[in-house]
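Hey, can you fold this one?
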Amino acid sequence: MQTLKVLKDELIVILVAAGPVLELRAAIPLGIAMGFTPVQSTILSIIGNLIPVPILLKILKPLFDYLGRTKMFGKIAEWIKQRTLKKSEKVEKYRALGLFLLVAIPVPSTGAWTGCLAAALFNIEFKYAFPAITAGVVVAGLIVFILSNQVVAFM
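Sure. Predicted structure:
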């Protein structure tokens, strides 16, 4: 029964990290609060944050192209596009390196999901986008790990 609880807790951390808003910035502290070590929490969060990346890189461009042509979702798709483009000047200029930087700095409205959207909007090929986003997620995970450790040590 204890094994099921641990698996359930691991799944919660992974799902929070895989989600589009909180990502690993919230999943790592959540995992620590749930009783995982900072290392366990970071590993689970990085895995969770990377799960949707290949799928998003494949579907976002065609999805946004389609939604942009519909009456119902055209304005929403355009708003998301413009919002992402504002945060992504470096991505346009530096391509994969810019994508890495966008994902690696764990501040609100950056992360793997935003990186995937930026890759789609700037037509960055999967073979460049996926490694850049993966490296960015790992660096962001390490930054949040270090910050979380400082908070835990302080308490």
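The chain has one domain: 2-154. Let me know if you want another pass with a different chain boundary.
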